[in-house]
Design goal:
The complex is a heterotrimer of chains A (322), B (442) and C (335). By secondary structure, chain B is α/β, with parallel strands linked by helices. Chain B is built from 14 helices and 17 strands. In chain B, a hairpin with a 5-residue loop joins strand 7 and strand 8. The model of chain B has no long low-confidence stretch (mean pLDDT 92). Chain C has 335 residues and is mainly α. Chain C is built from 16 helices and three strands. The chains are: A alpha+beta (322), B alpha/beta (442), C mainly alpha (335).
Chain lengths: 322, 442, 335
């Protein structure tokens, strides 16, 4: 009895000793030197492994930061300037401050304003349906509505709005990692400067068709009328292929273009309300404002809804006019 | 025992309802819409302007590079606009819109071309003429023919195969052409043989076209170099690699071309276009199109001018039947669904298939039950279920290692899948990504 | 046009074969064997099958609705088949609660825990059966002997299966000649009057269904024929060497679950290899393991174990026995 106890104890102990020796030898023999700075930098980085910086993960970005002499080209969009400053402090290198950016959706073509003319059957991913044809609507530039961008977002900053069929970006959660921009086969998501209080003005359309065709396909399409270009005093708006584009660096957020756009395809977000001209419009906007207060976290979404409602009212007005 | 390829293949219902309908000449359309990208490769460059008057057969877009092709005006008339119009790809592409001149007689005269059997041109001149007159592969891939005929020095060729298989269900354009233009096609074969310095040619025809086989056999009795091979009916025998394997027993290597085993394959339609270009100086500006569908009132085969809007063709056969839900440019296995009837006929349009409500919808995709049917029918020896999974999960490198790029997109896997899984959709997607990865690597 | 045009990628036609049709073909193929079991065991076979089927469907429904919260697919026929096959692998007169346990294990552990139809590694019905066999060996080997036109099993005599009789006899040093005297004749086994699970009664009925499946192209000949031939060859070799210690190949094939297993369980699409080559390897493996268990193992019957063991090898077989890629022969020749 005591023998068997003794044997097992000895056996296990010797096994343990052998294993310990092997482990020790191996860890010494195959030790790889790693700059301790890499671990320090990795510690500071957000650890989201989103690849927004261009490196496959935070660890490899840390290696890159430690390894390169000049890191002014490198930037972690998720951590932003604060993180980059800390990194620079540790490494004793220079970083360039960048304006924080945020993803915006440059399409307002929801189900209500952009009618479906065909029915797509097949795998519901944007990438595949974009390979098959130009999409269920007559606009071949706009959102396909299958939500590849939402699936790829690692920060839960996007969701599909069931009413419009368009993705919505929750600005507060967006880290501007750029995954959605990369994923979208239509390139309708753009990184634009956040600005103060998140004020943004941009063209919510990418349709390059001629005005009539674009308008027929989508009520809120940019028809290339150039009114915005004419009204802009800063030269921030350029027209190319029947489509307006607002240069965020030149734009002073005066909102003149928003007012003149006949199809409401220019989006202004997070601005305080101005007095609308038509009574009906006013009422509806008031409603929207109430909503804003109700859902302060989803400001962006409401702004889009508001734009759409404005467009709707406009449409109704033109109908009654006719 | 008839020849065929050994691995895989399916037998979809043939539905060749128009095989006894003679090819009719379609009424000249009032307006033609000619896309400049009708072939694989670089789109042609437009050489006309708005309001220009054009003659029938005049070059309106010039070949944009080596792998490109000239495009000729199919009618005499006036260019009304150059615009973005949805073509068979489902996207808006640059097109030249020409209004037919109703007073110009050349538009309406039906010239009878006498058979010219003597081949006067030298090989180089033949290839040049084929290039000048915009001949491209009419089997569906629309690869510019002059590029195919421009065989590099040192490549040994011994066989010219003529593809008269037409394995796609419904389509009968090639079948009718073989019946009605047998002698011309044989001259065309001889032209190609001369251009390529090849002494042996084989015409492969599936056994469901017995009349065409008989006719070819009769007319090639005297020809020592031209043989006729009757083949078992099996889809996708019209695929180049399958055809070479079926007729000659040679296997084109993975990622290789028939050239690698000394063979060049051309479609019968292309051969006829070659004949017309070389013997009659006639550019490729019309082709045979089968307009068909189970519920069609009067399905038929037509000589159609390139650029004719599909709605004109449909009007010709008595309009769309009640409950039409899908229009396909090409056959049901590899054709593309088109978005509207303004889409024009191009050089690659072999048929317009009208599908009604009952057959238009895809079945709901269910779980893979791992039955292995897709593996059994794949003519390329691939595992479609695996490739679909890999592309769905984004494992593209693994998919490339599993030979995803050798897929010929015949659709046999999707056709048989009892769970209605979109196998080919995902494989095609995977292929596009793998291709991108490969080009970025190089 | 009232409704918009449909756009989808090619192909635009589909064969008439669907998963549902495949599943219901299997159900149809099992009807003859079911009728035989009704004839032999009467109402108890009906109760057994009904309980197994109903509980399998119910468990699948409950798991999909409340645990996975996924789409409910009990109409696809796969749970129905699992239920029938489970019942066919159980002895008549098994307590109902045990049938329920078997169904729960079959559907819950054998199928849904892997992710549902198509993802399971093991044949669910066999998982249920083997679970019961290992857990309740006594009840699972109480084989009521066939009593003609018997409507109640309660007073039926219990006996052993032919394979069980052989195993027991040989263990006690009896010779085959003596044992054979007590065995049912080959013809009886072929028609289905011997002890055993309710589904493995009649080889004739099972073969009829098998031929139906082959004709409908639901299964191919590769798996069943290879299993039966390999079994016949292996047992034949032993029998020729020593006919007093080993039963004849005919007894081995006709008795027990060989035919049921070969035609209905080993051919289960989800758990069998994809390629023809792989199917042959898979089938040979099943046959060898079955024969080894039957001749040298503790259990008289080994088909279920053999199939489950080979099921585990299927992913490996699929990895190593790929179809030959078109064009790969030439490449190797050039290199």
């Amino acid at each position: 009895m005591t023998d068997s106890v003794l044997y097992s104890v000895l056996l296990l102990a010797s096994l343990g000793i052998i294993a310990a020796v092997v482990l020790y030898v191996v860890s010494k023999k195959f030790y790889v030197y790693e700059n301790p700075l890499i671990a320090d930098v990795d510690e500071i980085l957000p650890g989201a492994n989103c690849a927004g910086c261009g490196s496959p993960g935070c660890k490899s970005f840390a290696e890159k930061l430690v390894g390169s002499e000049d890191i002014s080209d490198l930037f972690c969009p998720v951590g932003g300037n604060d993180v980059m400053k800390e990194v620079a402090a540790i490494l004793g290198k220079e970083v360039v401050e960048r304006d924080p950016t945020v993803a915006v959706l440059r399409c307002q073509g929801g189900c209500d304003v952009r009618p479906k003319t065909t029915e797509y059957q097949g795998p519901r991913t944007c990438a595949i349906s974009a390979m098959v044809y130009s999409g269920e609507t007559d606009c071949q530039y706009g959102c396909l509505g299958d939500g590849d961008c939402v699936k790829v977002c690692k920060f839960d900053a996007m969701y599909m709005d069931e009413a419009t069929g368009l993705p919505v970006i929750i600005t507060d959660k967006c880290t501007s990692c750029g995954a959605c921009v990369e994923e979208c086969p239509r390139d309708i998501i753009e990184m634009r400067p956040r600005n103060k209080r998140d004020l943004k003005i941009f063209v919510g359309c990418l349709n390059e068709d001629k005005g009539g065709i674009a308008k027929k396909a989508c009520d809120v399409a940019c028809i290339g009328c150039s009114k915005c270009e004419d009204v802009c005093t800063k030269g921030a708006i350029t027209m190319e292929n029947n489509l307006a584009y607002i240069d965020a660096d030149l734009c002073t957020l005066c909102r003149k273009c928003v007012e003149v756009c006949p199809t409401h395809s220019i989006i202004a977000t997070n601005f305080p309300e101005k007095k609308p001209k038509k009574v009906v419009v006013k009422k509806i906007i008031e409603k929207a404002v109430e909503k804003v207060e109700a859902e302060k976290t989803e400001v962006e979404k409401v702004a889009v809804v508001k734009e759409a409602t404005v467009a709707k009212v406009k449409q109704e007005n033109t109908k009654t006019d006719a | 025992m008839l020849k065929t390829f050994p691995k895989g293949g399916i037998h979809p219902p043939e539905n060749k309802i128009t095989s006894s309908k003679e090819i009719k000449r379609m009424t000249v359309p009032k307006v033609v819409t000619v896309p400049i990208a009708q072939h694989i490769g670089i789109p042609a460059e437009i050489v006309v302007d708005r309001k220009d008057k054009v003659e029938i057969g005049q070059v309106i877009a010039k070949s944009g590079g080596f792998v490109s092709s000239n495009i000729h005006s199919p009618v005499a008339g006036t260019v009304t606009k150059i615009d973005q119009i949805i073509d068979t790809s489902g996207y808006k592409k640059q097109c030249i819109v020409i209004r037919t001149d109703a007073k110009n007689e050349t538009n309406f005269e039906e010239k009878e071309y006498p058979l010219i059997t003597e081949i006067q041109l030298e090989p180089k001149e033949i290839v040049q003429r084929i290039s000048d007159y915009g001949v491209v592969g009419l089997g569906g891939a629309t690869f510019p023919s002059h590029v195919k005929l421009n065989v590099k020095e040192g490549v040994e060729l011994d066989y010219l195969l003529i593809n008269g298989v037409e394995c796609e269900p419904y389509l009968t354009a090639d079948h009718r052409l073989m019946l009605e233009k047998t002698a011309e096609i044989i001259v065309g074969i001889k032209i190609l043989m001369k251009a390529l310095h090849i002494s042996k040619a084989v015409i492969g025809i599936e056994n469901n076209k017995k009349d065409a086989i008989k006719q070819f056999k009769e007319l090639t009795k005297e020809e020592s170099g031209i043989q006729v091979a009757a083949l078992q009916v099996k889809y996708p025998q019209g695929g180049e690699k399958q055809l070479v394997r079926a007729i000659l027993g040679r296997e084109v290597p993975k990622n290789g071309l028939p050239l690698d085993v000394g063979v060049i394959v051309n479609n019968v339609g292309t051969v006829f276009a070659v004949y017309e270009a070389v013997q009659h100086n006639k550019p490729l500006m019309e082709r045979v199109v089968t307009v068909t569908g189970k519920k069609m009132e009067n399905p038929s085969n037509f000589w159609v001018k390139i650029g004719t809007p599909i709605k004109d063709l449909i009007a010709e056969v008595g309009g769309l039947p009640e409950g039409t839900r899908k229009l396909v440019n090409g056959g049901p296995m590899m054709g593309k669904a088109i978005k509207n009837t303004d889409v024009p006929v191009t050089k690659g349009t072999s048929g317009i298939l009208v599908i009604s409500e009952e057959e238009a919808s895809r079945g709901k995709a269910e779980n893979c039950i791992r039955c292995g049917e897709c593996v059994t029918v794949c003519p390329m020896g691939l595992e479609p279920h695996l490739l679909m999974n890999l592309s769905e999960k984004g494992m593209y490198e693994k998919a490339a290692a599993e030979d995803i790029m050798t897929c010929i997109e015949c659709g046999s896997c999707s056709y048989v899948c009892p769970s209605h899984r979109p196998l080919l959709d995902y494989i095609r997607f995977g292929k596009s990504i793998v291709k991108k990865l490969e080009t970025s690597k190089n | 046009m009232s409704q918009p045009i449909i756009i989808s990628a090619s192909p635009h036609v589909h064969s008439a074969k669907t998963s549902k049709k495949v599943m219901y073909d299997v159900v149809i193929a099992l009807i003859p064997a079911f009728l035989v079991s009704l004839y032999v065991f009467g109402i108890s076979a009906l109760i057994l099958t009904a309980v197994a089927v109903a509980s399998c469907l119910l468990f699948e429904y409950l798991i999909q609705k409340y645990l996975l919260k996924s789409e409910i697919t009990i109409g696809d026929g796969s749970a129905l088949i699992t239920g029938i096959l489970l019942a066919f692998n159980l002895p008549a007169g098994l307590p109902i609660w045990m049938i329920l346990v078997g169904s729960l294990v079959a559907i819950g552990i054998g199928k849904m825990s892997f992710g549902g139809l198509g993802f399971n590694i093991f044949n669910p019905a066999l998982v249920g059966r083997v679970f019961l066999l290992v857990s309740f060996p006594v009840q699972m080997t109480m084989w009521p002997t066939a009593v003609e036109n018997n409507t109640s099993i309660a007073d039926a005599v219990t006996g052993a299966t032919p394979l069980g009789m052989i195993k027991e006899g040989l263990m006690f040093g009896d010779t085959m000649t003596n044992i054979s005297a007590n065995l049912p004749s080959n013809m009886e086994m072929f028609l289905g009057i011997s002890g055993g699970s309710i589904g493995e009664m009649s080889a004739l009925a099972l073969l009829l269904g098998g031929i139906y499946l082959l004709a409908r192209k639901v299964i191919t000949w590769h798996i069943p024929v290879t299993i039966l031939v390999t079994m016949a060859v292996m047992t034949g070799v032993f029998w020729v060497i020593d006919p007093e210690s080993y039963a004849s190949p005919l007894i081995h094939i006709l008795s027990g679950g060989a035919i049921l297993g070969a035609f209905y369980m080993a051919t289960d699409m989800v758990t069998s290899p994809m390629t023809r080559k792989g199917m042959l390897i898979f089938a040979v493996g099943i046959a060898v393991i079955t024969v080894v268990i039957r001749l040298f193992g503790a259990y008289p019957e080994g088909v279920s174990f053999a199939i489950l063991i080979m099921n585990a090898f299927v992913p490996l077989i699929n990895t190593y026995f790929k179809p030959r890629r078109f064009g790969s022969k030439i490449k190797s020749k050039i290199v």
